[in-house]
Design goal:
The structure is a homodimer.
Chain A: H1 11-17, E1 28-31, E2 38-44, E3 51-57, E4 60-61, E5 65-69, H2 74-88, E6 96-100, E7 105-109, E8 115-116, H3 117-122, H4 131-145, H5 153-163, H6 166-176, H7 194-202, H8 204-219, E9 223-224, E10 234-239, E11 242-247, E12 255-256, H9 258-279, H10 288-303, H11 314-341, H12 347-350, H13 355-371, H14 379-385
Antiparallel strand pairs in A: 1-2, 2-3, 3-7, 4-5, 6-7, 8-10, 9-12, 10-11
């Protein structure tokens, strides 16, 4: 048997074959593909009491088609990441019912009752009190468990080897961590940002700092990352009166610098704040960097006494967390910049009546986060930039 | 066919089977095993015009026997490292005629006309003008070629995955980068060093700095290393009037921080200097850190314009080299300390009539290199510590 592309009509049989559903006649299926890369189907029983999602990676980028080939092995990385998170934070990811490496397909929890965080924010809703706290905790739980603090040395080496992800890391290395600072056909921006885009390309200090962050991304094997932790990779909602946060789509997962996950989340939080400010809907946006950092730090410190390697002392923990903080700020800066003058932009800004003022503010903030990350030592210092 | 332990009598047939030698009746063999880990045989023709070495990794530590098992896969790491160096610095390693992964055996150049650098130094000889320069160049050539500067991103990820070396890295993580700073049954030292050994175990600042270097060793995937670059891993001599330097035994090779290779060499150079000072045979010992650094730096800078990834700018090169320098000093310090109060000591010191004064000086120097590495910015600053 070899890889086959699943169509809507294949899903009932597929779920029965794989042992997920006994009665294939009682399955209604609809395709709900939404992200750029993959196909997603929702299967549900006629009475609505049971449902599952099936996500398949195609051998190309879904929205581009076969002219942009992309190995479906990225689904292996996603399944591996879910398996690691499931050990330490099962409540913060969708339940995974099975992974089929042959077809690069995941069968997982139906989350259609939840809402993508970015969508909710774009509609003017606040983050609410739990979203950033749960996200920061997730990063702490995953990164601690897959660092040399939480995992035995030999097991870690095997994880590093199994988790290398050349194709998807290359996308980040190029699209996020170099193209916006050079002339590149991928780049585009609002014409009223011409001056800043040119300034950024000519800024030698900025270039060197981004080169540093890029090299760290390529060489710093601290822990397993989500790898693409933006507000479109988080679903939120209520279930039985409880606030639910589910982080999904970890297909960019690899063993890298912990600050990359936090930084991506912070960049998206800061951009959402610019949107809300522009629209006059500012509520709790300005607290999210601090809330996610505090949740990350306190969860990491809570886990510290359980470390497998007690040679690492408390003073080293302080130093390590400080470095994660600093690198997170830098990656936040690169993520903001690339989302405005790079390849893939954010609806947070593009759907504003006038995206220019918010985009200019965000770009300048991004630059400051990159070049001044060493001196910005608290969330309050970051607030002072705004 | 499966792994078999080669004995002296097996070597002629083995070399013929593997296609290295046609006439098996014309081979004289002697075992010359010397290091702790492996067996080495020298095969030569009756007329002395032809010779080869066969090195086999046993499934245990040779000097300890089967009671200390050790995967012979370490020979795979050695063969992989030789293959990488052969691409960029073939003149600085023994010629490799073949690797037999089944039997974990390398067939290689006979270097019995050369001398181990440590042996020569222990006999009171100087380094000579080429040894440290060639060694520094080798580190630059290997590390540049296997860094993100010299190797395409995807190929690098494959190298990282192929080169993980859990068992041998764990030895370094434990024996070099933690045990000397805690109570451990491996540790031993001259009784007149009791006070310093106790001081080092009680030194919180030292512990934190070593924890930092240790975490960097575990996470910083900068380039393929030799992994054990001490003066016992280098052979020197003259051939046809030319000075020859051959670095060998890269079985501890893995993708790690470049400074680890330089640091090990520097530690051994500094200890050799203490020996020479104690014996009154000091000659060029004090120049070797500077000579190897200058050779490393100038070769790395010479290669820089050939980098595959030009996003890395010249200012980033300066920053990268500065970090390599700083980490090298730290690793030099850890190597000195572990060789005096840790598991495996150096004949440089143990064979002195009174090893105590030189050992005390070296230990204190090692500590300074670790805790003050950030402020020691030139070879002259290091000299000033002595």
């Amino acid at each position: 048997m070899s890889y086959r592309i699943l169509e809507t009509d294949d899903i009932p049989g597929y779920l029965r074959e794989r042992g997920h559903w006994d009665d294939a006649t009682d399955i209604g299926v609809r395709e709900v593909s939404d992200g750029n890369m993959n196909r997603v189907f929702l299967a549900s029983s006629a009475d609505g009491t049971r449902s599952l999602a099936v996500k398949q990676a195609l051998p190309w980028v879904r929205v581009a088609g076969p002219s942009w080939p992309m190995s479906p092995d990225r689904a292996d990385a996603e399944a591996r990441a879910y398996a690691q998170v499931a050990k330490v934070a099962p409540d913060k990811i969708p339940a995974i019912h099975g992974y089929d490496p042959e077809n690069h397909a995941l069968v997982m929890e139906d989350m259609s009752d939840l809402e993508v965080l970015r969508t909710r924010l774009n509609e003017g809703e606040p983050y609410g009190p739990h979203t950033s706290a749960r996200t920061g905790e997730l990063v702490a739980q995953l990164s601690f468990a897959t660092s040399d603090f939480g995992m035995e040395s030999a097991e870690r080496k095997a994880l590093i080897a199994a988790s290398v992800s050349p194709e998807l890391c290359k996308i980040t290395e190029d699209v996020v961590l170099s193209e916006p600072y050079i002339e590149h056909e991928h780049n585009h921006w609002h014409e009223q940002l011409d001056d800043l885009a040119a300034d950024f390309r000519a800024d030698a200090r900025l270039r060197t700092e981004v080169a540093d962050l890029r090299h760290t991304f390529m060489t710093s094997a601290q822990a397993l990352l989500h790898g693409d932790l933006h507000t479109g990779s988080i679903m939120v909602g209520e279930r039985e009166g409880a606030h639910v946060v589910r982080v999904f789509d970890p297909e960019f997962s690899f063993v890298g610098p912990v600050g990359y996950d936090l930084g991506l989340y912070w960049a998206n939080a800061l951009v959402s704040e610019e949107r809300a400010r522009a629209l006059g809907t500012l509520s709790d946006h300005g607290d999210q960097l601090r809330l996610s950092w505090e949740a990350f730090e306190s969860e990491f410190r809570r886990l510290w006494p359980t470390r497998v390697d007690t040679f690492f002392d408390d003073a080293y923990l302080d130093r390590f967390l400080r470095r994660v903080w600093t690198e997170s700020l830098g990656y936040a800066g690169t993520e903001i910049v690339r989302r405005i003058i790079g390849f893939a932009h954010l609806t947070d800004l593009t759907t504003l009546p006038d995206p220019v003022p918010a985009s200019r503010r965000a770009l300048l903030l991004g630059r400051e986060l990159i070049v001044r990350r060493e001196e910005l030592s608290t969330p309050e210092h970051v607030r002072a930039l705004l």
